[in-house]
Design brief:
2 domains
Length: 154
């Protein structure tokens, strides 16, 4: 009887550890574990289409995370998506002619902002806007354009 109880406690302990591990894995996949903090500085960028970009999506430069998307809003006057980025304070030397792209990563299609630095000697500061942007590529639009061009060419 005592041995059976010990095995049940051990199994319960391993189940609890498994649920905790599963919770942390879910937090990593959903980007909820890396909440946006107040450190760093804000930049904005305007896009004609951001796809499914969300707050807390990564902002990368050369494949290294340098910040997070703080928010995505819609400008009613220009009909553009306005993306607010929170860049880590250590990344204070990003040229002001940097190009911002919306990219898709992985099989799940998580979208993120990729920054490609320019060659300007001037740097972006808190509150600046990134002037050069490229919107998300929408797979459905690309397939439609391909099929339309093939249908017209025959």
């Amino acid at each position: 009887m005592g041995r059976q109880r010990g095995i049940e406690i051990l199994v319960g302990f391993f189940m609890a550890v498994g649920f905790v591990a599963l919770f942390f894995l879910a937090m990593q996949v959903s980007n909820l574990s890396a909440a946006v903090t107040g450190d760093g500085y804000r930049l904005t960028a305007r896009f004609s289409n951001v796809g499914s970009l969300k707050a807390r999506s990564p902002v990368t430069m050369a494949g290294v995370r340098v910040g997070r998307v703080e928010g995505v809003s819609f400008d009613k006057d220009t009909y553009e998506a306005v993306v607010t980025l929170r860049i880590d304070s250590a990344m204070d030397r990003i040229p002001d002619d940097t190009f911002a792209n919306v990219f898709t990563a992985g099989l799940l299609g998580e979208q993120y902002i990729g920054l490609e630095p320019g060659g300007s000697p001037e740097f972006l500061r808190d509150g600046d806007e990134i002037p050069h942007t490229q919107s998300a590529l929408i797979l459905e639009q690309m397939i439609g354009q391909f099929l339309f061009s093939k249908a017209g060419g025959d």
